[in-house]
């Protein structure tokens, strides 16, 4: 059975990106299990001296979740013109492992700002390419999500936005099938 590890690049309580991830989990196609990563703020700062056995337990858990996932799905804000440090830190912990190699990966860029968080997603692609993740272009969507479209339950309510998130997920799920058949 396939599962998708879903990561919000925000540590802010009630963030739009976390709402996008929660909405995507709700929209997950049948036969695919969403696994929402909630420990972004708990990872130690990356230090190459720590990237050896015994690894910090939070890093062991992160790498296990990535290794066991069929794909990765992210949504992240932009801070100071680039990817937030917490998400970059998470990705730096993946460089020493091979868990992301050939892992189908997609995202929803939910920014409503004029620059559309271009710096975040450009740097995200660079880092994911560096770790040999398989970025699925059809599963990477720019879907502006105004805070007003999010209900009190933290889920996106707007049908058009939900449809676009679902479309990105569907493209990611379609990419999982060939990747899983190569492993077998």
TrEMBL record:
This is NADPH-dependent FMN reductase-like domain-containing protein. SUPFAM superfamilies: Flavoproteins. Residues 3-138 form the NADPH-dependent FMN reductase-like domain. InterPro entries: Flavoprotein-like_sf (IPR029039), FMN_Rdtase-like_dom (IPR005025), NAD(P)H-dep_reductase (IPR050712). Signal peptide: none annotated. The lineage of its organism: Bacteria, Bacillati, Actinomycetota, Actinomycetes, Micrococcales. Pfam families: FMN_red (PF03358). It comes from Leifsonia kafniensis.
């Amino acid at each position: 059975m396939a599962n998708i590890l879903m990561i919000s690049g925000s540590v802010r309580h009630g963030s739009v990106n976390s709402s996008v991830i929660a909405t995507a989990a709700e929209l997950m196609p049948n036969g695919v299990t969403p696994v929402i990563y909630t420990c972004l703020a708990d990872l130690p700062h990356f230090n190459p001296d720590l990237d050896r056995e015994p690894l910090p337990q939070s890093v062991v858990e992160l790498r296990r979740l990535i290794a066991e996932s069929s794909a990765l799905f992210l949504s992240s804000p932009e801070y100071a013109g680039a990817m937030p440090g917490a998400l970059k830190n998470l990705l730096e912990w993946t460089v020493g492992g091979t868990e992301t190699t050939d892992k189908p990966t997609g995202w929803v860029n939910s920014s409503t700002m004029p620059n559309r968080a271009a710096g975040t997603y450009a740097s995200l692609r660079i880092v994911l390419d560096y770790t040999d993740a398989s970025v699925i272009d059809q599963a990477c969507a720019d879907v502006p999500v105004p805070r007003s479209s999010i209900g009190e339950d933290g889920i996106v309510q707007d049908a058009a936005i939900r449809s676009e998130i679902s479309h990105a997920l569907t493209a990611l799920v379609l990419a999982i099938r060939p990747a899983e058949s190569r492993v077998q």
